Amino acid sequence: MLEQLKEIERTALAALEAVQDEAALETWRVAYLGRSSPLMQVFSKLGALAKEERPVVGQAANEVKKALEAAFGSRSEMLRQAALARALSEERLDVTLPGRPIARGRLHPDTQILRELYRVFAEMGFQVYRSREVESDEYNFQLLNFPVGHPARDMQDTYFIEAEGRGDNPIVLRTHTSPGQIRAMREMAALNPQNPPPVRIILPGMVYRYEQVDARHETQFDQLEGLAVGPGITFSDLKGTLTDMARRLFGPQARTRFRASFFPFTEPSAEFDIECFQCGGKGCDVCGSGWLEIGGSGMVHPVVLQNGGYDPARYTGFAFGFGVQRIAMLKYGIPDIRYFWENDLRFLEQF
Ligand code: FA5
């Protein structure tokens, strides 16, 4: 039996010398180390041997097995190295192949539309003013002429952050960017209280409302507020500014309309709509009715001017507040506002 083991080893090693590729190596492994190989048969016959022969033959068989496994390992490594060397020597630079595209990051459609709006308003002389997202009831409502308990508050269902011990002035997440009007005016008026400088700003940022979410309503969305205050500013200035903005953003054919409306902080007030050019005003997934409500606007209420430190006898002003996602929906033909914050790459990669 020991002689037979030596013979198995000799034959197997000789056969391994002839192996030149992976497939032949596998065939060799099955033939010499597989379950029905001669070597394994020796193992299965051990039980039938005489008691004193058993450990001797068993040990010899184990040594042969180890030797064959080691030889298999080094052959396998040798073949791998040879294949690598072959691949390297065959590698050539083919300058006619098309280049591999580089996956580039891109700006979120919301950032893109905001930057475009900054550009359009910068051309009209508006500067960006940033205001806080966490506000007091006083700034979010009261100074904007929504007294405590005023029914117009129902238009903006509010997230309260801290109410306890604050009486009529709880802390809220701002429901609109309009409180920034008061903060900006107060800051400007402080520069020269007797003759406050004119204001021409836009105030972008997130606002929060406890809303029923649907294709056109989110609980968190961007608004772009605008405020112009100075001597002799009229409603025509407001109409001209917004109409011009729509044309700069959507092209000279953009059609707009103003509808009489109500906001406590503007008088008179108007909703501002842009005709949907996805459907040419017929009504589609994006707009619903042919026109998309972009925002509210109006002449700054005298009480609000006063609260901002501007004398309403000497100054007038206009203000507006747009839904930024609504503008992006119209511009890019996005049928559902919920896509914006889902972070689905299939959506984001389209911009
Ligand atoms: C306001 O928030 C006023 N502060 C706007 C304003 C500013 C009027 C200055 C006058 C002067 P309103 O609640 O209508 O108004 O919201 C303004 C715009 O935000 C809407 O026209 C719409 O485009 C957008 N908007 C409102 N609610 C949502 C919502 N849940 N999801 C997405 N966009 C919304």
CATH superfamily of the largest domain: Bira Bifunctional Protein, Domain 2
The overall number of domains is 2
Distance between the termini: 76 Å
Ligand inventory reads: adenosine-5'-[phenylalaninyl-phosphate]
In short:
The chain is α+β, with helices and mostly antiparallel strands and 351 residues long.
What report would you give on this structure?
With 351 residues, this protein is an alpha+beta fold. It folds into 2 domains: 88 residues; 240 residues, BirA Bifunctional Protein, domain 2, CATH 3.30.930. The chain has 11 helices and 10 strands. Strands 1-5-6-10-9-8-7 form a 7-stranded mixed β-sheet, with helices on both faces. The model has no long low-confidence stretch (mean pLDDT 92). The chain binds adenosine-5'-[phenylalaninyl-phosphate].
Keywords:
about 20% strand, about 350 residues, binds adenosine-5'-[phenylalaninyl-phosphate], alpha+beta, BirA Bifunctional Protein, domain 2
